[in-house]
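Might I ask for a little of your time on a matter of protein folding? The record follows directly beneath this note:
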Amino acid sequence: MTSADAPYHAHIYYDPAERSAAVALRDAFCKDAAILFVGSLTDRAAGPHPIAQYEVHFLASHRPAVIATIEPTGLRALVHPLTDDDLADHTTLGHWIGEPVALDVTVLDPPGINQGIPRFGVSDF
């Protein structure tokens, strides 16, 4: 059972044709008081993400609302907890909305060292 205050991320993916939808969704998240951080649009590959994306940080208690906000947009997204196992977070513990994106898991932190935890709610790629 996940604690209601456990940290979560959503990665919102987009291609050039979807950028305006990604911006509109980002704007909606920026107005949501339960969202802790909304990252900048990254119009290139970054980290394990091979296509454009941005991050949204929130607590587990807000996960259903985040998923419900993303689903109608038609954008692809990965919603995952932020644990000490970065690989599991982005694979077995992740929830895909839409068609999954093939991540470069070779760049993820080793188990027990998840650098996303220190930057949760603070910074982006």
Remarks:
- The chain has one domain: 7-107.
- The helical segments are 19-30, 63-70, 86-90.
- The longest strand covers residues 7-13.
